[in-house]
Amino acid sequence: MATLSDVARRAGVSPATASRVINGSSKPVTDELRERVLAAVAELQYVPNAHAQLLARSHRSAVGVIVHDVSDPYFAEITRGLQRVATDQGRLLMICNSYRDPDRELEYVELLRGHQVAALILAGSGYHDEAFTRQLNEKLAAYEATGGRVAVIGRHEHSGDAVMPDNRAGGYLAGRELCGLGHRAIGVIAGPRILTTTTDRLAGLRQALTEQGRELPERRIRYAEFDRDGGAEATARLLDADPELTAIVALNDSMAIGALATLRTTGLAVPQQVSVLGFDDMPIARDVTPALTTVRLPLVHMGVRAMSLVLGPGAAAPRVEVLPAELIRRDTAGPVPRSTRATAGSAPRARRGDTTS
């Protein structure tokens, strides 16, 4: 492979001049020299060493992002927002999937710190794990001491800039909607217990039910992975434990889609016999049949705001931005059946357009 010295010799300039042209230095270079260097780069098919460039620059160009799984629609939408701002500012995004493994998350913080990224964004949920939280904060503090910037998305026990989706309020909206439709026998498909996202969404839902005189016993809650298969399996277990459920709240849309699949397999009509309500409003929520009633979070905007915080001017005190949730009414939540498990063959209701609350 051609080296910087090869380019300099071909162009008839010093290596320092060739470097200034290739790296876009602010130091002046004549048009003639610039053209000679660029011609040599093209002839030799020279590719700059990105790692060497990073070490040579005082300006760090990359931003590290740790997500649970970028193939998950939730994180894919957040990443769209992150990428939008990074691209506008000429930054490279380095995305790491932790797959909800706290140890892997710690390893990635060290790895990204070693790559001297300009900023770090933790885009996944926080954990109810004191030992992990202590280690994470120690590593982030060491990184920030070198001039790195940090922001988190979601509730983390970290003192710093944060973008907080109002998960508790979203859970409350879901509970209030189902109570308003007359449901009392409500089951919940929750995510992993260790995640703060699960705790907050469940707490808001429970608050709404309590205010309306409803109970949410543990037998009506099933914890599972935040994915379609987890939702399908948890729904089957819920129905086995309590066949008289009239509504199911899934704490993310992927789980809700799994719930719809299980209900379809068991011959239970949605929403005539069982209502289903999701969370997040992923793009697929409006395309499933029936279209999913859900709680919307501004996922792309969450990514935009987190990246804007770490790339914008700093602040003397941590900044916390809370982004609201809203209820999106579609076709999977309806009034409680007049008789438990009414005939599944009843005609479906006319499809409605999206409405919000």
UniProtKB/TrEMBL annotation:
Instruction: Give the Pfam families listed for this entry.
Output: LacI, Peripla_BP_1
Residue ranges of the TM segments: none
Q: Region (Disordered): which ranges?
A: 331-357
Annotated signal peptide: none
Which InterPro entries does the record associate with it?
A: HTH_LacI, Lambda_DNA-bd_dom_sf, Peripla_BP/Lac1_sug-bd_dom, Peripla_BP_I
The answer on whether this UniProt entry bears the keyword DNA-binding reads yes
UniProt keyword terms in alphabetical order: DNA-binding, Transcription, Transcription regulation
- State the SUPFAM superfamilies in the record: lambda repressor-like DNA-binding domains (SSF47413), Periplasmic binding protein-like I (SSF53822)
Q: Which Gene3D superfamilies match?
A: 3.40.50.2300, lambda repressor-like DNA-binding domains
Q: Which residues form the HTH lacI-type domain?
A: 2-57
Q: Know the name of this protein?
A: LacI family DNA-binding transcriptional regulator
Specify the species: Micromonospora parva
Organism phylogeny: Bacteria, Bacillati, Actinomycetota, Actinomycetes, Micromonosporales
